[in-house]
């Protein structure tokens, strides 16, 4: 991709602030592979009147909704995006009114209100690097597509007005590496942690792995087991179901690139 | 201690529901050593109007304020205390009005309001069992006193009206076992996790280890290093400083005994 100066650069080598500046100046792209080593994040923005319900929903459903940071009402920057602006620094947003998608802007300045509270929620991109570093292939990266995501028949623990289904992402893992994948991802509880389900998709109410609700289907190689992790799209599904007057999220795959290092979320 | 029927029982062998029933019927005692294997918890109860600030304070300060559960406004029971009643099932409470302690009742039914939200916050008793199981002596248990707790000069990340100092607990650990103590407790992020400080108390603004702000002093054996963990009294200190009209907490050492097993909070 070109920089503003026209020279090609490797997006994986950009510092988060440099990446955010490019998005601020109008670049629209999925962020997979950008700013290697830095945590990317889901976004959910709601009016202060809904903020307690959203935060409580996250507390009660920490696997799909691991909160990395919360900006105060009206605040547009913070430690996770130093010098940045949450209204412009994500490549693409989704705006919901009464639970319906009404806009997919690249800048939400026109939608901004002083009572909006921004939740920055962990993303599985962080543990995918750790999987690869441990010799476990990530199929959707190898196949050059988005991770497949599915609404399940599992209900989240509700909180006030917020209620909805658990959304999961799926990665096919060789049977001999399932235990390693569990071990590696369980060290990242702040970015969805260990899988929620290994094997039979029907038990999650998923009829056809080839037809994900979000993202792209992936081919499941012979001898691989479908492994399911809680997904940061879950709060968006709850917003769609609980229908607050206004909610803003990132567009799937178009994440906030934060200044936090992936390694900061590893335990123990 | 006697049961209602008069026969002596070992408090460590009581199920949580049995222990809560004894407290409900009027028994007042510190809970250290009770219901072995089950998680004990700190309590902070505030009106709904303050609940977002308290939950956000906890989110921003997860080491001192690891939230295990939140009851809805007016709710008096929940999965962590099945069949129980949060107004009666803790041996002793502290009631704050405008940040000042006004009562230390054994039952808060008279103070209850339908807008009160209960936060159940993890407690280091959980990792103390793990320390002992790993061959690390816990001095205050060996010496038969309460753990010493200190207000530090470290400020918590504020949230709305909630602001205050980090409160820490201190355990002297043999120099050769400090690394083990870090390793063991870091596996319990939901109950304060790894230490926040090892060694020199002056750097935390603690002038005299012999004069704790809460709990009892402990003797520090030769060759032991003072090791400091974030403490669940921290939200009470913030309540004292931020002065909501009403707040209710457990009395130090008189915890809520939950139905959750200690092992549920171990990672990975």
TrEMBL record, chains A, B:
Its EC number is 4.2.1.-. Signal peptide: none annotated. Gene3D superfamilies: PSTPO5379-like, PSTPO5379-like domain. It comes from the Bacteria. Keywords: Lyase. The keyword Lyase applies. One of its GO terms (molecular function) is lyase activity. InterPro entries: D-Glu_cyclase, Putative_hydro-lyase, UPF0317. It holds the Pfam family D-Glu_cyclase. HAMAP family: Hydro_lyase. NCBIfam families: PRK05463.1. Belongs to the D-glutamate cyclase family. This is Putative hydro-lyase D7003_12985. It comes from Arthrobacter oryzae. The lineage of its organism: Bacteria, Bacillati, Actinomycetota, Actinomycetes, Micrococcales.
């Amino acid at each position: 991709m070109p920089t503003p100066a026209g020279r090609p650069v490797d997006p994986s080598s950009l510092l988060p602030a440099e990446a955010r500046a490019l998005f601020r100046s109008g670049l629209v792209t999925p962020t997979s592979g950008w700013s290697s080593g830095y945590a990317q994040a889901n976004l959910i923005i709601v009016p202060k009147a809904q903020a307690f319900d959203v935060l409580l929903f996250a507390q009660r459903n920490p696997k799909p909704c691991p909160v990395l940071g919360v900006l105060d009402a009206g605040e547009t920057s913070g430690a996770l995006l130093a010098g940045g602006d949450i209204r412009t620094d994500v490549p693409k947003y989704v705006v919901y009114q009464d639970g319906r998608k009404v806009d997919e802007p690249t800048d939400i300045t026109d939608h901004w209100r002083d009572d909006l509270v921004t939740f920055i929620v962990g993303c599985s991109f962080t543990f995918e690097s750790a999987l690869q570093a441990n010799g476990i292939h990530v199929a959707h990266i190898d196949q050059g597509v988005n991770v497949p995501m599915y609404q399940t028949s599992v209900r989240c623990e509700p909180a006030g007005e917020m209620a909805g289904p658990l959304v999961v992402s799926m990665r096919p893992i060789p049977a001999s590496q399932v235990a390693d994948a569990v071990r590696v991802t369980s060290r990242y509880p702040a970015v969805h942690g260990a899988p929620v389900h290994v094997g039979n998709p029907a038990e999650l109410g998923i009829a056809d792995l080839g037809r994900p609700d979000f993202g792209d289907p992936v081919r499941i190689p012979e001898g691989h087991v479908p492994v399911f992790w809680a997904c940061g799209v879950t709060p968006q599904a709850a917003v769609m179901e609980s229908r607050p007057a206004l909610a803003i999220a990132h567009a799937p795959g178009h994440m906030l690139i934060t200044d936090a290092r992936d390694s900061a979320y590893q335990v123990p």
